[in-house]
Specification:
Elements (H helix, E strand, L loop, with lengths): L13 H4 L7 H9 L4 H5 L8 H10 L17 E4 L27 E4 L1 H7 L27 H8 L16 E3 L5 E3 L7 H16 L6 H28 L9 H9 L8 H7 L2 H7 L5 H14 L1 H6 L6
Antiparallel strand pairs: 1-2, 3-4
Helix pairs in contact: 8-9
The structure holds zinc ion.
């Protein structure tokens, strides 16, 4: 789960715009006026699954799942409705509500891996006391593609939206076994706490700490990188008396090769490359060594630190 640049209005895929039987505005309006049930409306076709929609979502999310950041290589990409298009009784969430009129709304579509999709299912809880209801008289059918941000302001969903929620990454850290942690600190205000509760809800709803295969994959990268750094520390201590940053270049280069925009688990990687946080995970607690590693990160990964806005914090 990383912050993603919000999609643009010109990017609505053609499949969602074409005037076929279901999406022709007049037909849709008729359907609404006749109070067609959510199931009948949604099951008419699966235009939101067309390849141009898939390609567009893949591009916006750098070919990764919106929540767990697994790459869509051989795994299927599921197109999920952020606000569910069908209702379903689920014990794990409070609400049981469908937004069937958003079945083809572009801003309501997010790319998920099969596991996140299965975990999230039709869960969509909100903090506001009232939900948005479909109103055929007021609904502007053409604007349906970009209602998510406005709906979110009104309903205050608990589930984070990677494009329409900002500044949530700073609350997330990782423990030594690859699990995500979201902790409340004494200096947090009410807005911080609200975001933290929402992050916890999102992590739980998508099973981001429960799925063993996912946690294991995250841990694998942590271990690989930390072990490379630990090996560099050994070499540095046995052969160098000076503050020679070169000893750590290959470990940092390894990291950079795996920290491209389309790399998996970028949120974890932004945590790992933080000069103050990385030293907490190292075996060696020698402050001189820690200082040299921090300098090496600033020297060899400055571009990443700037891109991740770590230098400002
Ligand atoms: Zn996922």
């Amino acid at each position: 789960m990383i912050s993603i640049e919000p999609r643009k209005i010109l990017e609505v895929p053609t499949s969602l715009l074409k005037s076929d039987d279901t999406l022709n505005p007049t037909k849709v309006e008729e359907a609404f006026h006749k109070n067609i049930t959510k199931k009948e409306y949604v099951d008419k076709n699966n235009l939101y699954k067309q390849s141009d929609v898939q390609q567009k979502l893949k591009a916006i999310y750098y070919n990764k799942c919106a929540y767990c950041e697994l790459e869509f290589l051989e795994r299927d990409m599921h197109i999920d409705h952020y606000r569910p298009k069908k209702s379903q009784n689920l014990s794990k969430c409070d609400g049981n509500y469908a937004y069937y009129w958003l079945a083809y709304s572009f801003s309501n579509l997010i790319p998920l891996c099969p596991s996140c999709n299965r975990y999230k299912s039709n869960c969509f809880d909100i903090n506001a006391s009232n939900r948005i209801l479909f109103d055929a008289k007021k609904q502007d059918l053409e604007s349906l593609h970009f209602v998510t941000q406005d709906y979110n302001k009104y309903e205050q969903p608990k589930l984070i939206h990677p494009e329409y929620d900002n500044d949530f990454e700073k609350y997330i850290s990782y423990d030594r076994v690859g699990k995500m942690m979201v902790m409340i600190h004494a200096n947090h205000n009410e807005a911080d706490k609200d975001m933290i509760y929402r992050l916890r809800y999102s992590i739980k709803t998508c099973g981001l700490n429960k799925r063993r295969d996912l946690v294991k994959l995250r841990l694998l990268f942590v271990n690989d990188f930390i072990e490379l750094l630990n090996a560099s520390v050994l070499l540095f201590k046995t052969t160098s008396q000076k503050e020679d940053l070169q000893y750590f270049k290959s470990a940092i280069d390894f990291f950079k090769r795996h920290a491209k925009k389309d790399s998996e688990f970028l949120l974890l990687k932004r945590f790992l490359i933080h000069p103050k946080k990385i030293i907490l995970l190292l075996r060696d607690k020698d402050t001189k060594v820690q200082r040299v590693i921090q300098k090496a990160i600033l020297e060899y990964a400055r571009d990443l630190l700037e891109e991740y806005k770590i230098l400002q914090s």
